[in-house]
Amino acid sequence: MTGLIRGAGAVAAALALAACGRDRAATDLADPLPPPAYGEEAANPEVFLDTMEVGSRELYAARNAVLAAAKIEPGERIADIGAGTGLYSLMFSAAVGAEGVVYAIDIEPRFLKLIGQRAADLDAGNVVTVLGRDRDITLPPNSVDVVFIADTYHYFTDRPAIMATVRDALSDGGRLIILDYTLDETHKDDTRRAHVRFGKAGLINEIEAFGFKLAEEPDVAGLNEIYMVVFEKAAPAE
């Protein structure tokens, strides 16, 4: 299914796609479901709203500029990988409208429950929560037009495996948007280098090796410690 799914049928189709992805993950993958990403402090994930959705966090403070740079169109199908508290999933929900779909994907079930509650409060019926896996985003092939990965890529433990599923899930010409932390000579010995591993140039090289083509490096107002890059799904080599 490469075209956009429309109207009331969009959510029904999205739910079917998500169920298909979950069923495939349950039957085809050797690795078990990952443990919850956070400890007991996440028993009530709403506590993370106080740390993840605050003005001191660039991804929150610059959220409107990020949304504008993402160039989301009405009717698009979006996968928000590592959706967390659902900040961007809910913004995408409004941007794509009733004819679009947003898959909020996370390996932490308690975050998905929070996102579902927030979506219900906003009557955002086009948001579908999906339990991901360490090596698989659990969406069927050609099911989305945009994959959005913010402050998550450096957490992937098997990047070749999970990015293969990202590429499969994207429709032809689909966009991959990544936001992650800068890493340069000023970060020689700090904890960021151990955590983030590589900077923008290294990420671009790696993503291109996974079958994507760099399309844009937006200059997003309000982002200083974080960069944004946009890729397109490259055509398969003949």
In short:
It is built from 9 helices and 7 strands, in the order ααααβαβαββαβααββ.
Write the layout of secondary structure elements.
Elements: H1 8-28, H2 49-52, H3 58-61, H4 63-70, E1 77-81, H5 87-96, E2 101-106, H6 109-121, E3 127-131, E4 144-150, H7 159-169, E5 170-181, H8 191-196, H9 200-209, E6 212-216, E7 226-233
Explain what this protein looks like in three dimensions.
- The chain is of the alpha/beta class.
- The protein has a single domain (8-233), classed as Rossmann fold (3-Layer(aba) Sandwich).
- It has helices at 8-28, 49-52, 58-61, 63-70, 87-96, 109-121, 159-169, 191-196, 200-209; strands at 77-81, 101-106, 127-131, 144-150, 170-181, 212-216, 226-233.
- Strands 3-2-1-4-5-7-6 form a seven-stranded mixed β-sheet, sandwiched between helices.
- It is globular.
- The two termini are 23 Å apart.
